[in-house]
Design goal:
alpha/beta
Length: 191
């Protein structure tokens, strides 16, 4: 029935605006008799209706998160193209190359955690806090362009409130790294 979450979100915006217009017009009609002038009262009704519609549209637009768009924004990507100059790559590819390099840390949980080894850096073996700090320091020396950390939380790993996650998040911010916590409903693959 609905093509996507964006379609539902658009319908929600339209309904909210219409509701705001109706409520605004009702408020305008209640207040209009106190104005005394019929033309001014009619203008007040129209103004209140427009203001009500605008207010609810703004409120609903903020529900979608940053940027006001609907959905999580994890689509298939831009792809690659060949430009007019014959070179491979698009503006999106060049912009991506300018973005800071990111370390991906997957968090373990449950029986997978042995000796406080919560952290899996990229696809390496699990590490404890000290081993993770050594590995990150080594990577940052090798590549000073590393400016971000993604902390991946899986369905079968620790949750975002776990001290291991909080400690890594706080450490990254203290190091002036961009820290992003990514929660997914996927399960960590069995190894």
């Amino acid at each position: 029935m609905w093509e996507s979450l964006a379609d539902v979100y658009t319908i929600l915006k339209i309904v909210a605006v219409l509701f705001g217009v109706v409520v605004g017009a009702f408020v305008g009609k209640v207040v209009a008799p106190f104005v005394g002038n019929r033309k001014a009262g009619a203008s007040l009704v129209v103004f209140c209706a427009a203001l009500g519609g605008l207010a609810l549209w703004l409120a609903v637009s903020r529900v979608g998160g940053k940027g006001g768009g609907a959905g999580p924004g994890n689509g298939p990507g831009e792809g690659s193209t060949v430009g007019r100059d014959g070179q491979d790559g698009s503006d999106a590819d060049r912009a991506k190359a300018d973005q800071p390099k990111t370390l991906k840390v997957r968090m373990l949980g449950g029986e997978r955690v042995k000796d406080q080894r919560f952290y899996v850096l990229d696809d390496d073996s699990p590490r404890n806090w000290d081993e993770l700090m050594e590995a990150i320091a080594r990577r940052r020396r090798q590549d000073p362009g590393l400016k971000a950390i993604e902390i991946w939380i899986f369905k079968n790993s620790v949750d975002t409130n776990n001290p291991a996650v909080r400690e890594l998040e706080d450490w990254g911010k203290a190091q002036q790294l961009t820290v992003k916590v990514v929660q997914t409903s996927e399960r960590l693959p069995d190894k």
